[in-house]
Specification:
495 residues; alpha/beta; globular; 19 helices; 15-stranded mixed sheet; Endonuclease, Chain A
């Protein structure tokens, strides 16, 4: 009996010191938001064994490591940045451009902080339906001449991916010079892909990359730091970015969620280079293959002509990305700057709304200062705790005078911020801490009246398929719902 008690005591002591060690690491050796620090300390001390397991799976901090540092690329970006900086300050065209005048600070911030070049010679199409998006992608794949690069957070083993793979194999068979194919997916999002299918693709010369692959069968100890990007680039001329993953539910809907409402962009023009640059860096990290050594994949940044000529399509755009390896929260900062700059209205689509202090403060200030702030979220959860936290923060916006809508026609998965019929930021990043800090994301920052108005019109049409979630509904919610929201809000930094 004494031996059992002694063993138990020693186990408790070891657990205490392990918790203490992890707490010291979190506090003194990792650069985290104070809310996240306190949340982890509470979890470790109140749930000692469960807390340690959770920390091993989702708590490790990789943000100090510069995962994608590639000197040749950084040097090229630096030279192009200096060149564009001179272009900003000296070009008569920029000086006389209304957008460059009004959003110069944001353009400059993206340029200097993220190496995101402002491109002007672009055109784009907007997709809100998966069928239309994938029909267009497959058609572009059929017409590929040099290469096809696909990077998706989720690729599922179903008919949609098999149809895409079939068209890719046809391109390989029909191509005289050989079209190069690279497909990359996240280790968590593609965990159910069969080895048989993957090996079959490899046998046809298709190169595959897995970002943060599972370390033990299908078990992945890195639940955080997922590659949430969705990028497709064909021949360096056409690019796709947005919310649709590769899976049949994004086309046909699902029994649980019904219709899938998302937003995806098809870009033609100079901005595609930014998507290819992002793909190349991710591919280098996942596979160790450096595609930057081959000029055929890129328009050399040093050679880019930033001045549009007569007859060019003028659509100002920057491709911005963020991730735990970045020093700045670039996409979040763009969202905030759009909100802060808005004079009339701000419309937001997001499936998850767990903002940090800076983001919710910007929204509250805008709403209280008379800006028409409207937030649209799903009417149903795909993650219970996340949805409860979303409703809680939506209530905070309601109290500040904003409007909240729940999309009722299916599941809302779009991620976009639009303001004043002038600017929009669309891509893969949700309005939550996970997208702001933990996931690798990519968005298109668009400075164009026609595109902004089209996206806002889509938002207004969605209102007809939504119900308004009012302040009175929020205040009259049940006690059980209040408890769920408070618990979820407390755990927000971990969700």
């Amino acid at each position: 009996m004494f031996d059992i008690l002694k063993t138990g005591h020693l186990g408790f002591v070891h657990l205490f010191y392990l918790n203490l060690t992890l707490s010291l690491i979190i506090v003194f050796f990792q650069r985290r938001d104070p809310r996240t620090v306190w949340t982890w300390i509470l979890v470790l001390n109140f749930l000692p064994i469960i807390g340690i397991i959770l920390y091993l799976f989702i708590g490790q901090d990789y943000r100090k490591s510069r995962m994608f540092k590639l000197k040749s690329v950084e040097d090229s970006i630096r030279r192009a940045t200096i060149r564009q900086e001179k272009f900003f300050t000296k070009s008569e065209m920029v000086k006389n451009d209304l957008y460059a005048k009004e959003y110069h600070r944001l353009m400059q911030y993206n340029l200097m902080s993220g190496g995101s070049l402002l491109t002007m010679k672009n055109s784009l199409d907007i997709f809100t339906d998966g069928n239309n998006k994938f029909d267009a992608l497959i058609e572009d794949i059929k017409n590929a001449e040099k290469y096809i690069h696909l990077e998706y957070y989720i690729i599922k083993q179903d008919y949609l991916f098999l149809n895409i793979a079939k068209e890719i194999l046809k391109v390989l068979d029909l191509s005289d010079e050989g079209v190069e194919i690279r497909i990359m997916f996240d280790g968590m999002g593609g965990r159910f892909m069969s080895k048989k299918i993957l090996e079959n693709l490899k046998s046809h010369g298709i190169k595959l990359g897995v970002f943060f692959p599972a370390t033990l069968g299908r078990i992945n100890f890195r639940i955080n730091y997922r590659n949430h990007r969705k990028i497709a680039v064909i021949d360096g001329k056409i690019g796709y970015v947005g919310g649709f993953n590769i899976g049949k539910e994004y086309v046909d809907g699902s029994k649980k969620f019904g219709h899938w409402r998302d937003t995806h962009l098809r870009i033609v023009g100079e901005a595609v280079n930014g998507l290819e640059l992002r793909f190349g860096l991710d591919w280098k990290y996942a596979t160790k293959e450096d595609i930057f050594l081959n000029d055929k994949y890129f328009t050399q940044l040093d050679d880019m002509d930033f001045v549009p000529e007569e007859g060019d399509n003028i659509l100002r755009m920057q491709i911005i990305s963020s991730g735990p390896d970045s020093e700045t929260k670039l996409i979040r900062d763009n969202y905030i700057e759009i909100i802060n700059h808005a004079k009339d209205h701000v419309y937001i689509h997001t499936p998850y709304f767990i903002p940090d202090e800076a983001f919710i403060s910007a929204l509250n200030i805008a709403a209280r200062s008379g800006v028409d702030v409207r937030l649209m979220i799903p009417c149903m959860p795909d993650h219970m705790f996340v949805y409860s936290a979303t409703l809680s923060w939506a209530g905070t916006l309601l109290e500040a005078g904003g409007k909240v809508y729940t999309y009722e026609k299916g599941f809302l998965h779009a991620k976009s911020v639009m303001a004043d019929g002038k600017v929009a930021c669309v891509g893969t990043a949700n309005m939550d801490i996970r997208s702001f800090e933990l996931n690798f994301e990519v968005n298109a920052m668009i400075y164009d009246e026609d595109i902004a108005i089209e996206l806002e019109d889509n938002f207004m049409r969605d209102i007809y398929d939504s119900k308004e979630y009012t302040l009175s509904m929020y205040k009259n919610r049940s006690l059980i719902q209040r408890v769920k929201e408070q618990v979820s809000r407390l755990l927000g930094p971990l969700l």
